Amino acid sequence: MNPATTRGRRLRLAAALLATLTSAAACTKEAPPTKPPAAKPAAVDGRSAIERASETIFDAWFAASPVTASEIGDHRFDGAWPQLAPADIQADLQRIEDGLALLATLDSAKLDAGERVDADMLRNELELQRFTHEVERPWITNPMWYVATIGSGLDDLVSRDYAPVDERAQAVASRLEGLPTLVDQALANLQPGGTMLPQTDLARSRIDGVLSLLDEIPSRLDQASPAALERVQAATGPAREAVERLRAHVEALLPEATTPWRLGKEAFERKLQLTLHTQLSSTEIRRLAILEHAAVRGRMATLAAPLAEVLFTAAERRTIARRATGDPQAALVAAVLEALSAAHVSPPQLRDTIEASLARLDQFVRDQAL
Question: To the nearest 10°, the Cα dihedral for 126, 132, 134, 137?
């Protein structure tokens, strides 16, 4: 799976969990019980058992994955990188086992519906992290995992206006100062013959983007204090040299990047279930996808017909049908989509249009206090 896809899925999961765990109203509505529910044990320091377990699990996860924490919005670890020496990797696996053991101590009979969902989501996430340790091991097999981590770890601190610029600049400086150590760990972990070819080649093509980001950081933090900027600038040179070492190492790995990148049927089935939070098999998911595809295509054809009457003359509609090499309805849908795609701004207006749209979205979020 693409690192960005995996990261996005985990961010959505964590955001959803954090939201549900901060509100007692997150429970799903159920029919009235036929008998009074069992009394729940008295909460310790005002928190339920699932809230305390979740906080423990999240704290350990974010401390071990500071870039993920920054992306989600927990900025306690903004100056740090993940630690990836062999002992650190083993400690992270133990963190996962400890989290699963903690969840196993919860009595599901004493959890309400929403809390059971929270516990299941956390358990599923930890199982997926354990799968990553036991099967994928991206810190050993996937150079792109490092490129994505470095890029996100720096860009999120620079691009997001989540704190005063001086505070963000100090966090950026800390990560820049720690980048050579992270790269040293990457070089030790990524060995000839141990990486996957597609991911190695992708890392080689994307690493120049990280170098460009390093060059831009001082100008993107130009509102910071002179002292903060001086620290950033002092750390940028060594950080850039480290990334250049990583690029040279990745290029040297390419000729021997022979580790199989396919998971295999059994591992794929397991990851698919963990990723989608389902017990369905890949065969059943594919069957449902085919049915859904047919339903969506049918709906598209239904919507395209009245649009075609507006967009095309009767003669043009007949021409579209006559030239169709397969399904006439599919040809009509394609023609309608092509006609609609012509309604767009010109290239010189694109940036201004996007900025105006972002400004409206930002104002809406602020007005609604989301």
Answer: -150
